[in-house]
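Let us practice reading a record.
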Amino acid sequence: MVRFKTAFVAIAVVIVIHIIAISAGAYHAVSWFDIPMHFFGGYVMAMLGLAGYAWIGERVDIRPKADPTAKFARTILEGMFVVGFAMIISIAWEWYEFLFDQFATNMVREYGFAQMGLSDTMDDFFNDFVGAIVAWGLWRQRD
């Protein structure tokens, strides 16, 4: 089970790496650098989703009943919650990148565009999704 503290530390690490990468120009110097950043972004957001799911589970009875199909249903529910949570954050991040490009013209001149087009956005969503699935698969094994 993931706790909020673990999730927040992981998120902080990804944010620090992101800030350093922007400062160093890594996103434009290394064409593939965005891929692992989105993978780990999805991963840490899924960790936060798992912590939230566990927190909710402590307050609401979402444990499986004696029926073996109930455990499967709980697993599916957990997966939908965690991956859906991570993807909502992913969508919000892409909106942020779009709005940054629209309104931060001085920053765009200095650092370049954050949003490289539709195919970049779809790649970002895919990498966030894979990161979330991997996190859910690895962390749910610990239950």
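A brief commentary: The chain has a mean pLDDT of 85.
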